[in-house]
Structure prediction request, 263 residues.
Amino acid sequence: MNSDTDTLTYATYLKLEQLLDLQQPKSTPPEHDETLFIIIHQTYELWFKQMLHELDLAGVRFREGDLWGVSTVLKRVRMVLKTLVGQIDILETMTPSSFVSFRDRLDTSSGFQSTQFRELEYRLGIKREETLKYMPEGMWGREAALRRFEEPSLVEDFHQFLKMIGIDLPDDIDVPKERYQGDLRVQDALIACHADRPDLDMLFETLLDIDEGLQEWRYRHVQLVRRTIGDKSGTGGSPGVKYLERSLFEPAFPDLWAIRHRF
Prediction:
């Protein structure tokens, strides 16, 4: 028989004691907005974890040829991205002076070091070798991110799905080690799908929603950084606004964007 201390409760199931003890401001005495800053970024990391969890399942469903299964999973990813964008509204209630009050305490840490976000990019097929230099040996999460960089991306899973359901795609589609740039032959096949397989349209639109959601988050994040620190370098010596601007419009599914004018 379990004792009272072994009884599963809301608090023990969610490990609330540990969870609520994870917000440890570095400022002394603690600056008021540092708690918000920590909670928002911890929450982002949890959502990144959930999206990776869902995108891995999406890959399985793609390779099983399960249209409805993969569509359901991808819709959830789309909704999580909407939530990430909404959280920026909360972070924007923090003024530049509030951020400056504890910014120096962040020392060498930076959101640019989020290896889970790198995993998310790589899983979606947005692979840039230059990002690897920001993950030095010994950095937490580096090995997981490197595995993602080497593994097939969701773009490749998508192509395998199309072949599995009978769409005629060439075997030599170029999905390079870095970001896939698109292929006219794939675009022709997608246009044919629009005419012959209207049941696929919702999947295509959901993939575009995910692309657009990630780009929207990037844009809002850039504006947040510009609003908070202007053109200063990011914390921990990260590149700051200029680098973030360069990565704004990097679609994971360029073929789906390229055919919009052909409808």
In short: The mean pLDDT is 89.
